[in-house]
Amino acid sequence: MTQPKPLAISMGDAAGIGPEIIVKAFARGQARGCVVYGCAEVLARAAGLLDADQACGRAVVARIDGPGDASALPPGVIPVVQAEGVDPAALRELVPGRVDARAGAAAHASIVAGARAALRGEVAALVTAPIHKEALHAAGVRFPGHTEILQDLCGGAPVRMMLANDELRTVLVTIHLSVRRALDAITEQAVLQTLRITHAAARAWGLQAPRIAVAGLNPHAGEGGLFGDEETRILVPAIERARAEGIDASGPYAPDTVFMRARNTPQHPGAFDVVVAMLHDHALIPVKYLGLEQGVNITLGLPFVRTSPDHGTAFDIAGRGVADEASLCSAITMARRLAEPALSA
Q1: What digits encode the pLDDT tens for the residues 2-60?
Q2: pTM (2 decimals)?
Q3: 3-class SS at 79?
Q4: For the purposes of burial, counting CB atoms within 10 Å of the CB of 89, is it exposed (0-12), middle (13-18) or buried (19 or more)?
Q5: CA–CA gap between residue 146 and residue 115 (Å, rounded)
Q6: Do the Cβ atoms of 262 and 275 come closer than 8 Å?
C-alpha cells in the first residue's frame, strides 16, 4: 500500500508563537502525517516550554533529512527538516516577542524549503505558520509576505487569497493595499482573473459547478450608479465575460448582505459556494467575525495547496506557552481536505 504523502509545515517566525502552536498541534495529535521545515532546536525549545502543560503531554523533536524519513519515527515525535540557510546558533539568541532580522531570515528559509518540497511532489501541501513582515524586511527579503514569496517561487503565476471556515469562503480581488490604491487596482481584468482562479480552485476541490457571488464595491452595490459607477463600469462586464466562459458568477450584490446569504449552516444552506470581494476588509471581516480559531487563509492559483492560520505572530504572548493552536489545526485539516487526491498519489 502506498504511503500517503506528508503535509509540510513551515516554522514561521521563531520569535513568535509559530513554534509553540506547531508543538501543541503535534502533542494533541492534530498534526499526524506532517513534517516541519525550519530549525529543530527552535522546535525543541518550544517543546521544553510546553512540557509543563499536562494537557499537551511531552513532545519530542527529531531532525530528519527529508520528508520520507518521517514514517520511520515513533508516533508522537515531531519530524523537522532543517531548512537550508537556517543558523541554529543565531536563533538561540532570539528574544520572544521581539522583531529580529535573524528570525525573519529563518522564517523565509523555512517557507522556501517547504515550498520547494511541494513543487518536487515530496509533500502534498504546505501549511505556513505566522511570519512577521517587519522581520522579513529587516532580513532583506524583498517580499512583504507569504503570498508574494510563494508566487515568486512558482514563476509569478497570478494568485488570490481566500479566507475560509466551515460556513463561509471569501476570495479577495485586492489584498494589502491602501483603499485609495486598491480602487485603482480593481479593473475588469482583475475581477475576471479572480473569478477564473476561484472557479478553477473550487473545481479542484470537487465542486463541479461552483456558485460564485460577486460583492459590490460601493454601498448597496452602487444603487444603479447613485453611489458610484464601478459596479456598472467594471464588475458587471467582468461577470458577463465570466459567464460566457461557463463560470457560474452572479452579482454584483450589496456587500452588507451577500455574506449572510452565502453563509452555510445546517439551518441555512448557503445560496453561494464562494463570495468574491473587492477589498481586504470587505472579505475578511465576516469570516473573522465567525471565529478566528476556525478561519484559514488559503492561496489560490499555486500548483500546490497552501493554507495558514488566520492570525499573526502574537508577539505580545510569544514565549509564554499560552498561544491557542486551534487555527493552525484548522489550517492542517483544511490542507488535508483540499489536497486529498494528492495524499495517496
Answers
A1: 668 999 999 999 999 999 999 999 988 899 999 999 999 999 999 988 754 544 556 78
A2: 0.88
A3: strand
A4: exposed
A5: 10
A6: yes
Alpha carbon distance 282, 298 (integer Å): 17
Across residues 70-88, what is the average pLDDT? Answer: 91
Amino acid at 250: S
pLDDT score at 292: 65
72 CB-near residues (< 8 Å, 6+ apart) = none
Each residue's pLDDT tens digit, 229-253: 999 999 999 999 999 999 999 999 9
Bridge partner list, 7: 34
Name the DSSP letter for residue 123: S
Secondary structure (H, E, C), 196-252? HHHHHHHHHHCCCCCCEEEECCCHHHHHHHCCCCHHHHHHHHHHHHHHHCCCCEEEE
Place of cell 517543546: 47
> Contact, 34 vs 27, CB < 8 A?
no
Bridge partners, residue 305, by sequence: 125
Q: Which of 245, 115, 229, 264 is nearest to 193 (CA)?
A: 245
Residues 236, 250 contacting (CB under 8 angstroms) = no
CA distance linking residue 280 with residue 173, whole number of Å: 8
Q: At 144, phi and psi to the nearest 5?
A: -80, -15
Per residue in 285-327, pLDDT (tens digit) is 999 888 767 789 999 999 999 999 988 999 999 999 899 999 9
Single-letter amino acid code for the residue at 227: F
77-82 and 249-253 as β-strands: parallel, antiparallel, unpaired?
A: unpaired
Domains of the chain by range and CATH? 1-158+300-345 (3.40.718.10), 166-290 (3.40.718.10)
| Size of the chain in residues | 345
DSSP state of 265: B
The two counts, helices (H) then strands (E), for the chain are 14, 12
Peptide bond into 79 cis (omega under 30): no
Q: Which H or E element spans position 276?
A: strand 274-277
